[in-house]
Design brief:
Shape: globular
Strand content: 25-35%
Oligomer: single chain
Amino acid sequence: MDDGKKLINWVAGVATLIVALLIVIVVLEPREGGVSRAAASRAVALTIAPKDEIEENGPEQSFFPEELQNEWYVKYMDFLYEQGYLDPDTCPATEGTALSEVTYGELAGFAAAVRETAEQGTEVLQVYENTSHSDRQVSREDFWEFYDVFRSAADQEGNVKELTTDLYGTPDNVDGAAPWTAYTKDGRYLFEGLSLDSYIDKTIRFLVRDQDILKVDVVVSDEIVYENAWISGFSGNSVTIFIGNIQREFPVRGVLRNEEEISGQIGDLYLENGTPVRLVLKTERITGTVLAVRDEEIEIEGYGNIPLAENFKIYRTYGVLREQQKDDILVGYHMQEFVVADGEICAALTTERPEIDNIRVLLMTDQFASLFHSEITLSCDTMAVLEYGDEQDRKTQSVAAGESVTIRTGDSRLEGGRIVFRSANEGGMITVESLTRAQGTPVYPGHMEITSEEDGLLLLNEVDLEEYLKRVVPSEMPPTYEIEALKAQAICARTYAWRQIQGSAYSEYGAHVDDSTNFQVYNNTNVFETTNAAVNETFGQLLAYNGTPIETFYYSTSAGHSTDGSVWGADPSQTPYLRAVSINDAGQTMDLTSNETFSKFIMDLDADAYDSDFAMFRWNTVTTSEILAEKIGGVGRITGLTVTERGPGGIARGLKVVGTEGSKTFSGQSQIRSILGNTALVYNRKDGSTYTGWDTLPSAFIYIENSGTDEKQVTSFTIYGGGYGHGAGMSQNAAQGMAQEGKTCAEILNFFYQGCEVLDIGDVS
């Protein structure tokens, strides 16, 4: 079927609508109540483009006078003027024009403009271009009928979506609410130019684009239930309920099941037409250490796995009351009260600030190959206890000092849930005889937990945070380094661990991290007096920006210049403390974004940098078209490699591979390092030594030269590089260089994380 026939069929399908619109425009008198040009322009503009594009593609100079340029509607109307949807001559950019009602003439302009750009489905809009009622104001109902037709033509990718949700607040009933903000069950939305107050406490279907409401489509229900709401106050005649981070007050006389001591409870509030008709309290509470948080259940010590209610809520009840997310439930901590109804957890209450002092670590198999073990063998240097069984029938088995206990998949003791192995005496150390690390057979403080999963056994070590760090720092930085460098590493490691505890990477397994380079290497080497001292001297210290612990990224060796947070494709403004600067006393930003400039920089073996004396400061290697073909296919014989884009500091973030049968592009430092790396490559380091066996390039601070093609049609490429790691945050070897020059831990941290301060872990919320 050709395009013409497609259009004919599409038009036929909306024939009824066309007829209806013709009657509206040509015959009938306008209905009461219109839509302002401002509101109409917003709906049309957001249908055409997202808000950020609207703001970017407006005119250089606003059509509106300066005194109006902060009004909410200006950006939308400016955009439509610029794109040809509005005519500033017939529709001048004034406040009066913006706030008066849109006319059929403007609808004709909208219709004509979209017909020029839309690929199909615009025939129905022709009816609006031929009206003799161009000055007549459009009723509210008729505008939205037009909008539905306009949207079908202008938004063929479906960017405007339907959202059915409960509306529970606007600035009309929420003190301190931001202008034009709608509070819904699904989050906050903007509704500039619309009126939503009459829809509060109803289930509504909206048309939305991103976080903007464009149209109220229909009232789905005027009966609504605020489930599992926090009751923050009760006066006898009214109750104050916390819903989605706002306070609402409702009259409740005669609707309570139990009016005594209801403040601080969880309840379901039933409303009809905005009027409370029933409040059902949920008073049963349990408490215990959280062992795991899964999609549909939470495992609590002493209770086992309890399913979550469909509208499960989480509230922080200390400090500033606010609603939280499931990710905010910390595994391993006894910090929540759980409200239970009908055998399900309907709410979790974070009742106090947790004292972060333990971390739960999944121990991987040999060579950090997998999380899942086929068998686990444990022993302890003191008397130990093995606990197993379900919560109703918990069994305890004594284990003599030095006696080995082996757990295999299918072990009957796992049928009741997790097995716990702990020393009977404080300070006892547990040996995992089934593991091998760089130090040999590893020994751990804390206790062990074993659970059975579909893929095998998980082994979890819960350990005091400071003891954990004593086994992380020497695994991440040589214990022979200067104490000030080690202290900087300890603070970075503690801050990183704190953020991981707050996260939810392994909450389904009841853990915070694993012991590999996926997080921080833990207990791969022995402990040392120097690294223990670094941890002890920085006890409880975190690095924070504006009071919030930061992402303390660090890496081995710089190339003489760092990069910023954009190295992972993120907005660098989200990590303002990560700077792209030269790694020396100057700390200046150099423009290394061209291949010519960067090549001179990277080939300078004597560039000034704190870590310039380290072997990986400069390196080079030679790869070939044959080696590259192991990871890059589909382009024929590879003949060219070119860095097409560089980020701050000169890091490669775009690469073009050219072959005899085509080309491919790769983006991002991780991908570039991966596709260019190969275990066969030999790296010549600054100190004259060589290294091989890496599957990825040491860094993406690289320059590539074509070294020619031999008689066998094999093309060679020389890669000149510098540094080891991603290049964002602290260079560990530069920290050592700074410490050797007499710089303190504070000076090191301030250089790599600008604007940050050291806070005590107890002062961080």
